[in-house]
Amino acid sequence: MVKEIERAGIPVVHIATVVPISLTIGANRIVPAVGIPYPLGDPNLGEEKSRKIRRELVERALGALMTPVEEQTVFEK
């Protein structure tokens, strides 16, 4: 589905807990998530720190959307 959406001219970012799977399916822009049970935060860290994690991931994903790519790219911190 990712390839079809991008073929239509809409950039897509995968926020992925398992980056190799995103690479296998052909995602062009990949942002690694925190972990499998809590991809966008960690409830053990409290709401404030978890919110900070989510914000950083979303900001990185927005940056990835604005970045032209020619091949699969993993947007690390």
UniProtKB/TrEMBL annotation:
Keywords of the record: Oxidoreductase, Selenocysteine
Listed GO MF terms: oxidoreductase activity, acting on X-H and Y-H to form an X-Y bond, with a disulfide as acceptor
Keyword Oxidoreductase recorded: yes
Source organism, top-level taxon: Bacteria
NCBIfam families: various_sel_PB
Protein known as: Selenoprotein B, glycine/betaine/sarcosine/D-proline reductase domain protein
Source organism (scientific name): [Clostridium] hylemonae DSM 15053
